[in-house]
Amino acid sequence: MALLIVFVKRWSPVLAPLYAVLEGLFLGGISALIEYNYPGIVLQAVGLTFGVLFSLLLAYKLRLIRVTKNFRMGVVAATGVGALVYLAGFIGQFFGWQIPYIHESGPVGIGFSVVVVVAGMNLVLDFDFIERGHGRAAKYMEWILRLLSKLRSR
């Protein structure tokens, strides 16, 4: 569905809200399951997520983090490598093999958790994208503005 939203833009007014609802149900279900097994972990995850968001936004607004061409290339490359490693591991599971160490609690597994840092740096790229956009959105995204204006006029 996400691919359709990205590549068939005229369908996005219908598919994007549906995708959001389905994603919310999926993440809510997974969160409930994990919370049942590890009480308190979901609240910690949500708190850390918002902490990272506001910390990075503050660092970006104070220009402690500057988005340069090299920064963009590095983040995109690191994201691509992480995605390829996880994809290889996912495919490998179908053939009975897995990538050793990255899902363990040893030094390599903890080190591989740098993926969280890469995710945070992608958030910084999002801040930059929004700031450089000067408030302009593509024509096919007008439905979002109409929806927001209707919600705001209530």
Could you walk me through the main structural features you see in this protein, from its secondary elements to its overall organization?
This protein has 154 residues and is mainly alpha-helical. It folds into 2 domains: 38 residues; 113 residues, no CATH class. The chain is built from 7 helices and no strands. The two termini are 30 Å apart.
Blueprint (SSEs and pairs):
Layout: H1 2-7, H2 12-37, H3 41-61, H4 69-94, H5 107-112, H6 115-132, H7 142-152
How many β-strands, per DSSP?
0
User: Oligomer, anyone?
Assistant: single chain
> How many distinct domains?
2
Note the gap between the termini: 30 Å
User: Helicity level, as a percent range?
Assistant: over 70%
Keyphrases for this structure?
154 residues, mainly alpha, 2 domains, 7 helices, globular
Short description:
With 154 residues, the protein is mainly alpha-helical. The chain folds into two domains: 1-38; 40-152, no CATH class. Helices cover 74% and strands 0% of the residues.
